[in-house]
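User: Watch each token:
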Amino acid sequence: MTKKLDRRTAYTRMVIKESLYKLLEKKHLSEITVKELCAQADINRTTFYRNYMDIYDLYEQLEEELTEQAFADGDIQKDRYKLLELIYENQTFYREFFDSRLESR
């Protein structure tokens, strides 16, 4: 029974992340609301808050996951290519990531 719950949680988080990516294609992170994200993901707000504190918590967790994926091998040469591949595959996320870094300067 625990396995079923874990898969369900993993699926919910995947849907939330995909929904965030879709919304980031249209607007900046600061313009996205939990209500809007939940409507896009077809989940209720309680489900969202069971997994994340807010939109920024979700975004930070995505950033951590992608960073871990990029540098998992420990081989600098492989990590460079993996990082570029991750950036390419997750362009929507990284567009917001780089835009937010530039705006804070």
User: Anything to note?
Assistant: The chain has one domain: 2-103.
